[in-house]
Specification:
Length: 136
Amino acid sequence: MDEVKAKGMLKAFMLGIIIQKGRVHGYEIYKDLIDLGKNKWRPSIGTIYRMLNEMVKEGLIEKQEIIEGKRTVIYYRPTQQGIIEFVVRSKLFLEKVYLGLSLLTATLQELKKAGMTDEELEQKVRKILELLKKYF
């Protein structure tokens, strides 16, 4: 995956976390991303903060500094523009998933004709595709 696509995915994941939580600090976003990736994918904390700063500059999120005891904690909140960006990215993602699953289903059918099949995979793909067909 090229860097631009990876950056776009990371931005979408981060926006999703920020929208879900409403207000969240950077380290919590980092922990949620690690949980989301099930430790198979681990962006650096520096990458997270660079991306947060970019998203603030782009107007997708707002930065809020709050003094908690003796330290200042920076929280991030979604903006209306950020929510719209997330929805647009989500729609595009689902369209790509639907197209990919359609191709996969057709390919699996051809493999089945050739005697090479994975019934479990085929059933899973068909179930997901049936759910998505309602929306496309």
